[in-house]
Amino acid sequence: MKGNEAATITPAEGHGKTRDVTSHQGRSPSDETCAVDLEPILQKLGRRGRYQLIQLMLHLFSSFANNVAVFAVVFIGYEPDHQCSQMDNITQVEAYLPDDVTNFTLHHTQFEECSIDVTVNTSGTSSTHSLPCVAGVNFSMPSHTSFVTEWSLVCEKTGLTELTQTGFFAGQAVGALLFSVPADRYGRRKVYVTCAVATMASLVAMTFINMYEIMLFCRIVTGFFASGMDNVAYMMVMELLPHEWRCLASILDGVLCACGCCFIAVVAYCLQGVSWRYLSLALASVYFASLLLPCFLDESLRWLLATGEIQEAERILKKACQMNGRDFADIQPLLQKQAFNGNSLPVQNRWNTVISGHEDELTKPVLVSEKNTDEDLNENEETGVDIACKEGDAVVHQTDVLVTKTEDDIIDACVHHQTELPGRDGVEAISTRHTVLDLFRYRVVLVPFLVCSFVWLANNLFYYGAMLGSAKLSGNRFLNFGLLSLLQIPSTLLALFLMPRFRRRPLGFFFGLFTGLSLFVSVGLSTLGGGQGVTLTLATVAEYVGMFAVNGSFSVFFVFYMEVFPTTMRSVGTGTIAGIIRLTSLALPFLLVWRKETPWAPGVMVGCLCCLAAVSIWLLPETRHRKLPDTIEEMQAWKKKRNCST
């Protein structure tokens, strides 16, 4: 098969899976990337080299920048205290009174946030009526403070501010679903840089608009590209680092997210007297750094090896060796092995690529295995490749036969027999490709999928609810947002300290339970205390404690949920969970609207979810000090071993 041709190779009868063998242009290597054995190369390169650290910080730039995009609305969409404006004359009152109220005199007027309570006297009889803000709304701050004050998005327009955040989450949900395909096909780096620049453009454009509808559109676009940037960055981090670094990467991600939120609080405090448009532009300036990404950011080595881009991988590795003070000559044989023996590489790239003059590798001897009888062996002596392609599901081998055939011969023979291509272990399959439906076919992955989705949902509701609602807490709104942001750093560092020392499940349970209980305390104090005085301050402190706990839960969980899925389904599982959470986040901003009507109800609901999520963690397998499972079969064997031990 050459060029863009593609063929679907169906295994022999009785083998339960189908493989796709396509060209680089027509396939998605996301599943195959995990199968690339990059560990020996990383070991020779130096696991804590300067190159990896620089690339890691470039990947995690999205963690800092995207929190700016998410939470900018807390200040540019701030809703200050307000009340109905004074009426110009009594005729404005008359237009809103019932028809039977005539010849009245205005006795008393009370101006509320979104209503005017008027008491009128008609023929000696007094009656009280509630009117809307007939003369508009007066804000306690200048009209340029936020787009809420500029466009009066209160009272009958309540919910429109929250709708902009719902639009942002909607864009995130779509971006999470769509950007994985171009990232697999065209490369992580191109998609990452494109999304970063597009996010910057949409944030800058938002500062010049004069219509709410365009603002809503800009928020949707910002969420769409910010999500693509964030997901691809996380993918690049996981593909860059060896497994022992991934816990540290998760912690750094949490710290940079907190720093991004602190940056918002500091900039908003410094610019609190100017127009929200200048504040929006100042926050968008973070993304100006994305214009420098093409100069320093490299493509994922795993993606390059998985798609057969060996020359580019070689160029990057030479650069990395130079930065880390290593000799490329030690890495070159390992790269050559990946190029010619890696069972995950696209066929025409893997077997038609030449590295540094090693053309003779194209006709190297191929070791094939078979479980046939001696008669079958004699029958196939001349075309020994047929032996390898018969019964692609062979796992017991009796005889090893050395035949000298070109790789194209092997491909053609395998296609002819409609079996799988031989991998580095004889008849090893290229890679198992799973879909979302497979999450529901196997109980061993269905339970982790449901539990992880539920835990992430509960944590998400608390975290975003606290951050987006921080302006309504007792005290200074800038200080509240800044403290909630800073609390993420010690809780993340605490998780870094505890994870190597304690099991995943107890840690996740206690962090999650503490989150729910803290929210119950906060709601109880604010409700019983009437929303004022010392009890309101204590309620705010309880919410701080909850924020500390939920960030610890996030830190443990983001490592945990990557470990409970097998390699062949890790991308599908985590990607589907992310998409589901993005969709459920659409309703999150309206919890804030609900809190205005019934202050205690959203807190009680989210607190219950956090406690239930903490308990559900015990349904997950313990993964500390265990090798990451690669297949569903390994997960099933793992579960049987656990059941036997208990």
Entry summary:
The chain has 646 residues and is mainly alpha-helical.
Structural class assignment: mainly alpha
Output mean pLDDT.
76
- Low-confidence stretches are 1-35, 341-431
Largest sheet: 3 strands, antiparallel
Give the strand order of the largest sheet, numbering strands 1, 2, ... along the chain: 4-5-6
> In angstroms, what is the radius of gyration?
30 Å
What's the helical proportion of residues?
55-70%
Shape: elongated
How is this structure best described in words?
The protein is mainly alpha-helical and 646 residues long. Helices cover 59% and strands 7% of the residues. The chain has 30 helices and nine strands. The chain has helices spanning 30-33, 39-45, 50-59, 61-71, 73-76, 90-94, 147-151, 160-178, 180-186, 188-206, 212-240, 243-270, 276-284, 293-296, 301-306, 310-324, 328-341, 347-351, 374-379, 385-389, 407-417, 443-468, 477-486, 488-498, 504-528, 533-563, 567-584, 589-597, 601-616, 632-645, and strands spanning 7-9, 19-21, 82-84, 104-111, 116-122, 125-131, 137-139, 366-370, 399-403. The strands form four sheets. It has a three-stranded antiparallel β-sheet with strand order 4-5-6, with no helix packed on it. Strands 1-2 form a two-stranded antiparallel ribbon. Strands 3-7 form a two-stranded antiparallel ribbon. Helix 2 (39-45) packs antiparallel against helix 17 (328-341), helix 3 (50-59) packs antiparallel against helix 11 (212-240) and helix 9 (180-186) packs across helix 10 (188-206). The longest helix has 31 residues, at 533-563. It is elongated.
